[in-house]
Design brief:
Pfam families: FAD_binding_3
Keywords: FAD, Flavoprotein, Oxidoreductase
Protein name: FAD-binding domain-containing protein
GO molecular function: FAD binding; monooxygenase activity
Bound molecules: flavin-adenine dinucleotide
InterPro entries: FAD-bd, FAD/NAD-bd_sf, FAD_mOase_fung
Radius of gyration: 23 Å
Structural class: alpha/beta
């Protein structure tokens, strides 16, 4: 079994007489953070820790990064943080503005339109965008030092002692750190190991002792670049986003359970659904098959859409973020924003720590959960409401009729709720927020800013920071 530590960082127990340089000294007083999972949440945390000069290592099970997944809605809620992280320009270069969503029936007859035009005004001056997940992934990936991400490292288990945590990966390596962050997605190995340990001592709440519940199965993919001559809608400045209510064609066949984002289970579903009508194209006679045929097969995935918010988010030196502790239906379009918001909240608190004792961790993890759990619950409920628009039952019929007649004031209120939280990092220079309505109070920002001020600490200044000027 190989025993790996943070390369370049000397251990606290190193008794050699070689004097430490100032950078080593600074590193020695900081907690060492192991992150399981280089997804959107894990990479955001990695960038933030890098900027806060906190030593970290990301362990990712994949051997290479594949451009899997399709589109994500993101923008207004994440913009201030992306600016602080110095990635906003890169983000804008891959993003397409979204200001509406058309809902149609399966014959492509328009049902209602959700208008997002106000978002910029109530969302701090920031627009909403659609991005291809692989593109957003690349943007974040490119801002993490390459040697800080170790690929082909599937986290299997971990063991805690009084002073550290030891993580075991599938290639028989051991990693030591002060904190383990489970950012390893809906089927998080960190969560599973943590819950198993807690269950053995009767400390796992019954609500968490469950298999992941899911209600729908989803086919996702991303076509090759389409020509505007053949598909005029791709030439438009604003994203033409449509949602189709396939009420009579609804899928009831659940023969193929699949828990990973990957191509394996997709082929049968493609064949089953390729005849469905979809909007767009020159002739207006497109079917899903026209898009499937323009999508590389290895980049089509069939996934189950699990829906749960777990109650246990931390214990000892271990803490969860993103899909590992709350998994939403993507219809609500909040999964990525939630993971990113978890990451900045956690980074704010970790940035206040010196080498932590377990009790210090308990305090900051408690604060982290107190801020993020209610947000996750609320996002979960609103995701479920959006999912209801796609269903068949009486409640779905009611929700659809409500959506068609939604008063403007209520829609504006719903939008503000979703983009009101615009989190920022307390250890980076703040970014201005210029909307008609202020962002929501962010507990971790205010509290950790106060801690920094007490210690006479300003923002960590970095080269890219200088470019992230106010809006
Ligand atoms: C390949 C992929 C494609 C996706 N496509 C879409 C999409 O098109 N639309 C959408 O709305 N959402 C998509 N999602 C989900 C979306 O990215 C997440 O809901 C959201 O971003 C939350 O991110 P996360 O970091 O918590 O989890 P994820 O983004 O799921 O990342 C988890 C990471 O942990 C890694 N991992 C898992 N187990 C282990 C382990 N034992 N040890 C080490 N690493 C591990 C995974 O390989 C992955 O890189 C996709 C997720 C993935 C992984």
């Amino acid at each position: 079994m190989s025993n790996s530590n943070f390369e370049g960082a000397r251990s606290r127990d190193d008794r050699s007489n070689v004097p430490l340089n100032p950078e080593e000294l600074e590193t020695l007083t900081k907690p060492k953070v192991l992150i399981s999972g280089a997804g959107l949440g894990g990479l955001t945390l990695a960038i933030l820790l890098h900027k806060a000069k906190i030593p970290f290592l990301v362990l990712e099970k994949a051997y290479e990064v594949k451009p899997l997944g399709s589109a994500l809605v993101i923008g207004t809620g994440a913009a201030p943080l992306l600016r602080q992280m110095g990635v906003y320009e890169d983000f804008l270069a891959i993003a397409k503005h979204q200001n509406h969503l058309n809902i149609m029936d399966e014959n492509l007859k328009p049902q209602w339109t959700l208008n997002y035009d106000w978002l910029e005004d109530i969302g701090g001056g920031y627009k909403e965008y659609i991005v291809a997940r692989p593109d957003l992934y690349n943007v974040l990936w490119n801002h993490v030092p390459r040697d800080r991400i170790h690929l082909g490292k599937r986290v299997l288990s971990f063991q805690e002692s009084e002073n550290q945590i030891q993580v075991h990966t599938s290639d028989n390596s051991l990693y030591h750190g002060d904190i383990l962050v489970g950012a390893d997605g809906a089927y998080s190995a960190v969560r599973q190991h943590l819950y198993k340990t807690l269950k053995a001592t009767d400390d796992l709440p019954k609500s968490d002792d469950v298999a992941l519940p899911y209600k729908c199965v989803c086919l996702v993919g991303q076509t090759d670049v389409l020509s505007p001559d053949e598909f005029p809608e791709v030439g438009k400045d604003v994203c033409q986003f449509s949602s189709i209510l396939g009420l009579t064609n609804m899928c009831t066949n659940d023969s193929f359970r699949n828990s990973e984002w990957g191509p394996e289970a997709a082929v049968a579903m493609c064949n089953e659904w390729r005849h469905l009508k979809v909007p767009g194209g020159q002739t207006g006679e497109l079917t899903l098959g026209d898009y499937i045929d323009r999508t590389p097969k290895e980049y089509i995935a069939k996934v189950m859409l699990e829906e749960i918010v777990f109650d246990t988010w931390y214990s000892g030196r271990t803490v969860l973020l993103g899909d590992a502790c709350h998994k939403m239906n993507p219809t609500g379009g909040v999964g990525a924003l939630m993971a990113i918001s978890d990451a900045v909240t956690l980074a704010n608190w970790i940035s206040t720590l010196d080498v932590p004792h377990e009790n210090d961790l308990k305090k900051i993890f408690k604060q982290y959960k107190a801020e993020r759990y209610p947000a996750a619950k609320e996002a979960f409920q609103s995701s479920q409401l959006f999912t209801k628009t796609l269903g068949k039952g009486m409640l779905s019929v009611f929700v659809r009729s409500l959506m068609k007649r939604l008063p403007l004031w209520l829609w504006r209120r719903m939008l503000y709720k979703s983009v009101g939280p615009r989190p920022q990092a307390s250890f980076l220079a703040p970014v201005e927020d210029n909307g008609s309505l202020k962002p929501f109070y962010q507990h971790s920002l205010q509290k950790t800013l106060a801690i920094r001020q007490e210690r006479g600490l300003g923002p960590v200044v970095q080269e890219e920071q200088a470019n992230a000027t106010a809006v």
